[in-house]
Structures are given as C-alpha cells and as structure tokens.
Amino acid sequence: MDFKENIITHFDTFKKKANSPANIGEIRESALNKFAKLDVPTPKHEEWKYTNLKNLLNKVYYLGNEVAITTSNTDKYASFVNQYDEQEANILVFVNGEYVPTLSHIISPSSELIITNLSYAYREHSEAIDQHFSKYAAYEKEAFVALNTAFAHEGAFIHVPNKTEVKLPVILHFIADAHATDVICHPRNLIIVGKNSSVTVIEHFNSTNTPFSTLTNTVTEVYVAENAYCEHYKIQTEESNASQISTIQAVVQRDGRFNNTTVSLSGKLIRNNLNIKLNGENCDVYMNGLCAITGSTLVDNHTAVDHAMPNSQSNELYKSLLDEKSSGIFNGKIFVRQDAQKTNAYQSNRNILLSPTAKANAKPQLEIWADDVKCSHGCTIGALDEEPLFYLRSRGIGEIEARAMLIFAFADDILERIKYEPVRQYAEKIIAQRLGMEE
Amino acid sequence: MLSIRNLEVAIGDKKILNGINLEVKAGEVHAIMGPNGSGKSTLASVLAGRSDYEVLSGEVELFGKNLLELSPEERAGEGLFLAFQYPVEIPGVSNTNFLKAAVNAIRKYRGLNPLDAVNFLKQMKEKMKLVSIDQSLLSRSLNEGFSGGEKKRNEIFQMAMLEPKLAILDETDSGLDIDALRIVSHGVNTLKNKDNAVILVTHYQRLLDYIVPDYVHVLYKGRIVKSGTKELALELEEKGYDWIKEENAVLA
C-alpha cells in the first residue's frame, strides 16, 4: 500500500473520533479530497529537487492518536519540556501531535492571552476559528498542507487580544515518540496577534530515539494584525529517526512585525516552508535561519516572502554549517508585486562545508514587478576561511580551538538574534558542546 | 635568536625568495626595506607559518629550533609574533575573548597555568594604555569595523599582551597618520628590551625615525642585496630604490 492510500484509510475512523463541528468537517473533507488528487512530491517537482522523500513515504504509518501514550508514563517526556533555563513561560506539550495537559501549564492571565488546544478552540472560539483557520495556509496545491488540514485536530490555538503585550513567552513542545510503530502526526497551530499587541512563540521539536520512524507534518498559521508584533522561533533537535515537513504561513498587516528564527540542529530529514505575506504598508519582517547538522541529516529550507503592498521591508539571513554527509538546501523567494513600491528586501545565504562529503544547494529567486525598490541577494558556499584561521593560530591558538571559535562565531551570528535568552543559550550550548568548547 | 640561511621560497611556480641570509640577535632591531614585490611580506609570512608558501630550500632556526617544522601556533608559543600588514576582521569573536584564548594558549605551551580573569583584566588594562586603545574596541568583534589605525594599534596591543621574543612588524606603518605612527612606535619602543628583538618590514624610512634600527637590509628580487645601518635607510629615502635596481640589474 502506498503512502497516500495508507493515510486515507485512516481518515474515517479519525473523523469520527475527532467529532469536530460541521464547518471544520467540511474543510477536512475538502482538504482530504485535494490530498487524494495531488501528487506526493518527488525530486521531479522543481520545489523538491534535492529532497527525496522516498525513504519516508515507504513506511506504513499510524496516526498519532492511534498510538497510545499512557498518561502515567509521561515522565520520560519531562526532560524535553525542561530543557530551557526559563524563569516562567506558558508551556504546551504535544506527544505525537496529541495534547498532554499534565505536562502543560499556562500562566498568563486569560485577559492577556487565550491559549488552548486547537480541538477545544474549534468549539469554544468559533468566531476566531471561522475568521482565521485554514485561511492562510492554502492546501489547494500543497499535498502536505492538504494532508495536515485533513487531519488537523490538536495543536496550539493562541489568540492575543488587541492592545495586549503578552509578557511571558509561549513554548510549544512537540515530541515524536514512535515507541511501537512508525508514526505520522499533524500538529496544527493558529497564532492570532491582535492589533497593537505582541507575543513570543517558540515551537520546539524533539523525538525519542527508537527503532521506528516518525514523520511530523506540521502547519502553523500566523496572523499579525495592524501594528502587532510576533516573535517566533522554531527549534529542531530531533533524533535521526525523526523527519519533519513543517510549514509556517504568516500574514502581516499594516505596520506589523513578524520575526522568525529557525534553528535546525538534528533529525533525519527536515523540510521547512516559511511563507510570509506582507499584506499592508510599513511591515517589517526578519527571517533568520541556522542549520548546523552532521551525520546524514538533510535540511531543506524553503522561504517565500510576498511583498504585496508598498513601503515594507524584509530581511533574510540563512546560514548553514554542514558536516559529515549532511545536506543543506536553501531556496529563498522574494516576490515584489507591482503595487509594492519602495520595498526593501534583503536576502543572504551562507553555507560552510565542514567536510568533503557534505553538500549544499542554494537557489535565490527574486521576482520583482515594481520599479522603485531596493532588493539584494547574496549566496556563498565554501569551506571555512583560511585567513582568519591563520590569524588566530599565529597568536598561539591551536587549530582545533581556532576552528571552533570561528565556527561558533558563524553560528552565533544567527543565534544572537534570538531575543528570548533561554532559547538562545540553549542553542548556543549545543553548538559549543559539539565543538568541544569550554563554557 | 633567529638564524635564516639560504632560504628559498615559492608560491606555486613562482619563486619569491632566492636565498635569504639573516642573523638576528637578542636586543636588536632590524629593518627590512625594499621596493614593492621584492619579497618583504613573503619573508614575514613564511616566518609566521602561512601555508600558501613552499619552502624550496634553506633553514630557519629560532633559538636553535627548526622553525619551519613548527605549526603557526607552536611558533607563537616559541615567542614569534607577526603584526599583520592587513589584520583580519573576525566577526563574532570578541577581541577580549580572543586575547584571553591566545594568552592562555601560549602560557599552556610554556607550561604555565592559565591567567585567571582578574589578572588577565589587570594585564589588559595596563597594556591598553601603551597603545591608547579604547575599552570599547576590546568588547567588539576582533578588528571588525576598526579603522586602519585602530587595526594596527590592536596588533601592537596584542604584541604587548603576548610579549613575544621576536616580533615581526609587516608594514605596520603603512597607511598610518603621524599621530597613530607615534602611538604605535611608542608601544614598540616600550616593549623593546635586551632579551627580545624586532624585525621591521617597511617600505618607508619614516617609521625608522621613531623606531631606530640597528641594521637596515635592502631586499630586492628575493635577496638581501645591501645591508647597513640606519644611514642606509636615509640614503634610500633620498635616492629612492632605482639605484638599488641599477646596481643589481644582473638579477633582473
């Protein structure tokens, strides 16, 4: 049975069990029909040229909600949840895409922040759901978005009312635990930041190390209203049995700001789609990415920023450190539509190959229809520079230490953009440990 | 201290040094002058251990050790220091952390315990005055966005911190205004003592008004074609390098 057929056979049981409101049910059916018709991507698709899903799609997956995790045995997930040295945070934990209330806690007052499991929001926050759910992540052309939408049930619903600064961050932990079978799960998040409001959201992906495979197919929709601000991080530290296809679809309204930093440190195969639409004037967007991988990990970052209105700016910096047999792929699209005069759009992609067997592929794509814009892009692929290395060594610093200093500095250029300190320190520590650096 | 015998060096197929002989003793200052392309910077780089060069023949000894067999970091440990003609900008590596790593790496090489934070900072404060370098520069990334003069002062500051036995200054004076030149020279002169030595690689005599050499060597086409005292530098300043070229036309 092929991937598609297998998944579809699970749908009816899933649908009954989910028992969602009629409008959600309609979206589900429609998305499933699309998924059934769309081709599952192969390297023949231009957007999947370097990322072959063959070894993921030949498995017989069970859905996350079919794989029992006993609530009495949630201790083994605690270590994933307590990774940051955070003072206080709102924490939601999902195992195989299923919400685990016993590991979660919400501190921010409900006047400041509405935060629930998505399936609850389907019923209790139907107005916001009607207005925003599945309105931004289009599933008509994307097989994996269609698949996620068909099975979207659990995940974080985050709604910040107008004129509210959420002081504590929201940390979402997604843990894949294929303890008895191969598992596929479909976490679905919706983040709505009201006018003049702000929030920080962290999505962290982990997996347990088992002989079985996991495929996390996640979609996050983000709506940033007028003059609102969303600081968003995606941290990927899964085991080598875990793969991920992950889409963020953000829409930013006038004077809004959206910053995403994506840090991919381990896993088997990771495909990140980051799509941002600047839907008003004077928007400001940052896309930062660090991919630091070893072994045979593959990370494919596809970003697309759509400048639909004038006077906005986007800044993108993606860096990768590729060791051993790992592969890094970067595809960055910038669209500047005819109306989007006075756009500033900058893109930079830098790849360092740390071993002769590592691979990098990069493709910047700019499509500019307006005539009064500033756009630039740059891309480099190469080994670590010899000149700085010689400089450090000439001062007595040994080669290994000198290389570590330079590699760390290269990575930290991205990590220091993470404003939420505990996450930045967490990622820095992993990089430093890999390089054998002292604290 | 340093003994170079018949050193021949090439980059790729191109021979740059054609048999250099030079003896430097403790307490001495040597100036190496010469027209552009004569091999001055190559000599400095080869001594520091840059790997782009191929040593075809000859010997270099520092305190009796075969320098050419040592890695750049071992050479630094043995007491060699090169002030770069073009100091490298290293974003993300703070000047202070870099210096601490360097000081302690060299101490380790010499079998000494690492300096603790207090003593390191104390030493840093002391040496900062020497080259009038600002604290704010030290908390920034190494040389990143520094002016030309700041970079050169930072080189001499590093030299002060690392206390080398043999310092090679590769065109440290190039591009410096007179105030910066005074500061840099003051630093070098203060660090100078009977136990260490300095090789000044320079194109211009101006530097030698401030750091007075014991010996001046003229490098031309990869050979030392003339050696003398500081008066030779004045003669070069006055007459330019053409007479050297004419005298050595046979090498061309």
Average pLDDT of chain A works out at 95
User: Might you state the CATH topology name of chain B?
Assistant: Rossmann fold
Number of domains of chain B: 1
Proportion of helical residues of chain A: 10-25%
The biggest beta sheet of chain B is recorded as: 6 strands, mixed
Q: What's the number of helices of chain B?
A: 10
Point out poorly predicted stretches of chain B.
Answer: none
Task: Give a structural overview.
The complex is a heterodimer of chains A (439) and B (252). Chain A is α/β, with parallel strands linked by helices and 439 residues long. Chain A folds into two domains: 3-279, no CATH class; 385-439, no CATH class. Helix content of chain A is 24%, strand content 38%. Chain A is built from eleven helices and 21 strands. In chain A, the strands form two sheets. In chain A, strands 1, 4, 5, 7, 8, 10, 12, 14, 16, 18 and 20 form an eleven-stranded mixed beta sheet that branches. The model of chain A has no long low-confidence stretch (mean pLDDT 95). Chain B has one domain (2-251): P-loop containing nucleotide triphosphate hydrolases (Rossmann fold, 3-Layer(aba) Sandwich). In chain B, 39% of the residues lie in helices and 28% in strands. In chain B, helix 2 (72-78) crosses helix 3 (95-109) and helix 6 runs parallel beside helix 7 (178-191). Classes of the chains: A alpha/beta (439), B alpha/beta (252). The interface between A and B is medium-sized, with 22 and 30 residues.
What is shown here, in short?
The complex is a heterodimer of chains A (about 450) and B (about 250). Chain A is an alpha/beta fold. Chain A has eleven helices and 21 strands.
List key phrases describing it:
heterodimer; A: 439 residues; alpha/beta; 2 domains; 11-stranded mixed sheet; 10-stranded mixed sheet; globular; B: 252 residues; Rossmann fold; 6-stranded mixed sheet
Topology (elements, then pairings):
The complex is a heterodimer of chains A (439) and B (252).
Chain A: H1 3-9, H2 11-18, H3 22-37, H4 54-57, E1 62-63, H5 75-81, E2 90-95, E3 98-99, E4 114-117, H6 118-124, H7 126-132, H8 143-151, E5 156-160, E6 170-176, E7 183-185, E8 188-193, E9 198-207, E10 214-224, E11 229-237, E12 242-252, E13 257-266, E14 269-278, E15 284-293, E16 298-307, E17 313-322, E18 327-336, E19 344-353, E20 359-368, E21 374-382, H9 386-393, H10 399-415, H11 421-434
Helix pairs in contact in A: 3-8, 9-10, 10-11
Chain B: E1 2-11, E2 14-24, E3 29-33, H1 40-48, E4 54-62, E5 65-66, H2 72-78, E6 80-83, E7 90-94, H3 95-109, H4 117-130, H5 135-139, E8 141-142, H6 148-162, E9 166-170, H7 178-191, E10 197-202, H8 207-210, E11 215-220, E12 223-228, H9 230-239, H10 242-247
